[in-house]
Specification:
heterodimer, A: alpha/beta, Aconitase, domain 3, five-stranded parallel sheet, 17 helices, globular, B: alpha/beta, Aconitase, domain 4, four-stranded antiparallel sheet, 8 strands, binds iron/sulfur cluster
């Protein structure tokens, strides 16, 4: 029977199957970070387990770490203890740890691919919902909880229920100013925050094929915001070119063998998907979120919806609540809305392409008075490369802060946090209540749009900024 | 894991859709490396809002939560189910769940039940009226006064594990170590590049 890419990846990793459709899946790789694993290691110790294949594990600290003054010990005692615990656990269990003061540290979903740790055809898990990012390489990658992190380390296998298959095809080419972030947001706006729940998404179509690996990662990263644990792009020449020569990728004869095996990692032409979504990429406008769920999104030149027009009581209540939290009114426009903070970074948009796009928006202008703007590279390697290209100087000269790699303002659990009532143009992936700080308000958008908002002091339509 | 067979008690009704795990357990408390005692941070930033159901005087006795669609969406943080379990909850019923949250619940002795919205609606009614709701995992039923007994399904393995309080890691090791070894031998032959580092490290 014709199979989808998801079927192929799944079938290749089934250890045993149950009659009710669940399978014990073999797990090839596990990425660890400091926040989701302390309790996993505690469970290993309690159960008297060892790590079954330490060579398949890679750990890094990213969520809790400060993005400034990294030459000093972490000031927050809880964060310091958490990072210290990861270091100790990795040492005790023989796991590779990318040190906070080393050159390879970064956000877990940035360093996995960068290291060549993420490869096509493998299963990869991490105690983090944005593990879907790695699906950009044609890997079956999904987020798990801390208990499952422990299970994956001890047994190299997890019980999983197979998802239904969903294909999202972006036909045509993106218009200038429209980015992978806009593709992701437009999809979520179309199908809803639970729209792909129970499904594994494969992204296809001309606009997806044309994307760099960075762009594909942005797209797969936000599969979870559409409710899916898994986003996939079939690997191709772009994928292989990105991976060749990476530190942890196979080399020489091993590379040739892998490359040969990766060639047929695609859906059969006649494979049937349970659900198909088609989006005309050419007609997409730049997007921005207005609410507290990623599906509360509109084209930046559109007007906010009116709860009064919604017949369904629950939907109306949700929209009313979101508008109240965001301090916005029905019919209002996002373009022109004042922001006081801007965040460029995260595992969605903290890669080199993203920083280049943001920097290209500056064109000699400066961050508006009263706006605090942060640029946080997704990894040490991204930071070094950006600096080699002089992007840091462009940002700093324009009044942006240039930071060390980490999750930073994507999640309010490190030193970078917004005060209540702050309004932020952000390139991250979640606009949840309190995500960037209790009472803070988040508008998700692309890196160029966020940079343009920093300069204007309000949200702008990037197509007009460029004109 | 504490076994779960029957749960009978008061239920909290929280009908809002898309309650994400950042709301259930705000990120700033993720720096705590413990698993126990997290209930005090559950819904921290919603506490004190007018009519928030977890603030009701009898909410402390509740063992069941009737929730809205897409409950537990967002971040994979297992602190969300840990905190809810720490509040004494054993069962969560909703029209749909965030998938990672759903799976996390079962690892922590929390029974997550997906039911059609209409039936969840009836249970919201019963919970709001302060009724006692009875969940029977062995029989696969939920009963509440004024509501026709509702059957529910849970996959066989999760059900067995909950009924017996089994730990997943120990169970996989006990039942499938040989299967895993067989799989590994085959993969090592077919895809040796996935094993290079094991060989270097060994
Ligand atoms: S950048 Fe944000 S979404 Fe990505 S791993 Fe860090 S906290 Fe999670």
């Amino acid at each position: 029977m014709a199979r989808t890419l998801y079927d192929r990846l799944w079938d290749a990793h089934v250890v045993v199957s149950e009659a009710d459709g669940r399978s014990l899946l073999y797990i090839d790789r596990h990425l660890l970070h400091e926040v989701s694993t302390p309790q996993s290691f505690a469970a290993l110790r309690e159960g008297g387990h060892v790590v079954h294949r330490p060579a398949t594990q890679l750990a890094v600290a990213d969520h809790a770490v400060p993005t400034h003054d990294r030459d000093r010990p972490i000031a927050d005692p809880l964060a310091r203890a958490q990072v210290g615990l990861l270091e100790r656990n990795c040492a005790d269990f023989g796991i590779d740890y990318l040190r906070l003061d080393g050159p390879d540290q970064g956000i877990v979903h940035v360093i996995g691919p960068e290291q060549g740790f993420t490869l096509p055809g493998m299963t990869l898990v991490c105690g983090d919902s944005h593990t879907a990012t790695h699906g950009a390489f044609g890997a079956l990658a999904f987020g798990i909880g801390a208990s499952e992190c422990g299970t994956a380390m001890a047994t190299q296998a997890l019980w999983q229920t197979k998802a239904r298959r969903m294909r999202v095809t972006f036909a045509g080419a993106l218009a200038p100013g429209v980015t992978p972030k806009d593709m992701a947001l437009a999809l979520i706006g179309r199908i809803g925050a639970a729209g792909a729940s129970g499904h594994a998404i494969e992204f296809a179509g001309e606009a997806v094929r044309a994307l760099s690996m960075e762009g594909r990662m942005t797209l797969c990263n936000m599969a979870i915001e559409a409710g899916s644990r898994t986003g996939l792009v079939a690997p191709d020449a772009t994928t292989f070119a990105y991976l060749e020569g990476r530190p942890r990728a196979p080399a020489s004869a091993s590379w040739d063998a892998a490359l040969a095996a990766w060639q047929d990692l695609a859906s059969d032409p006649d494979a049937v998907f349970d659900r198909e979504i088609e989006i005309d990429a050419a007609t997409l406008a730049p997007q921005a979120t207005f609410g507290t769920s990623p599906d509360q999104v509109i084209a930046v030149d559109g007007a906010l919806p009116d709860p009064a027009t919604l017949a369904d009581g629950a939907a109306r209540a949700k929209l009313e609540k979101a508008l109240a939290y965001m301090d916005l009114a029905p019919g209002q426009r996002l373009a022109g809305l004042a922001v006081d903070h801007v965040f460029i970074g995260s595992c969605t948009n903290g890669r080199l392409d993203d920083l280049r796009a943001a920097a290209a928006t500056i064109r000699g202008r400066r961050v508006a008075a009263g706006v605090t703007a942060l640029v946080v590279p997704g990894s040490g390697a991204v930071k070094r490369q950006a600096e080699a290209e002089g992007l840091d100087r462009l940002f700093v000269a324009a009044g942006f802060q240039w930071r060390e790699a980490g999750c930073s303002l994507c999640v309010a659990m490190n030193d970078d946090r917004l005060p209540a009532g702050a309004r932020c143009a952000s390139t991250s992936n979640r606009n949840f209540e309190g995500r960037q700080g209790a009472g803070a308000r988040t508008h998700l958008m692309s890196p160029a749009m966020a940079a343009a908002a920093a300069i204007a002091g309000h949200i702008v339509d990037i197509r007009e900024d460029a004109a | 894991m504490i076994p779960l067979r029957q749960v009978e008690g008061r239920a909290i009704s929280l009908p809002d859709a898309d309650i994400d795990t950042d709301i259930i357990y705000p990120a700033r408390f993720l720096l705590i490396t413990e698993k126990r005692g997290l209930g005090r941070y559950a819904f921290h930033d919603r506490r004190g809002a007018p009519g928030f159901p977890f603030d009701a005087p009898d909410a402390k006795e509740a063992t069941i939560l009737i929730a809205g669609a897409n409950f537990g969406c967002g971040s994979s943080r297992e602190q969300a189910p840990w905190a809810l379990a720490d509040l004494g909850l054993r069962v969560i019923v909703a029209p749909s769940f965030g998938e990672i949250f759903f799976s996390n619940c079962f690892k922590n002795g929390l029974l997550a039940i997906t039911l059609p919205a209409e039936q969840v609606g009836a249970l919201h009614g019963a919970a709001t009226a302060g009724a006692t709701i009875a969940v029977d995992l062995e029989a696969g039923t939920i009963a509440a006064p004024g509501v026709t007994t509702i059957p529910f399904a849970v996959d066989a393995d999760s059900r067995e594990s909950l009924l017996n309080g089994w730990d997943e890691t120990a169970r996989i090791r006990a039942r499938h170590s040989a299967d895993i070894t067989r799989f590994e031998a085959a993969q090592r032959r077919a895809s040796p590049w996935l094993w290079t580092k094991d060989d270097i490290d060994a």
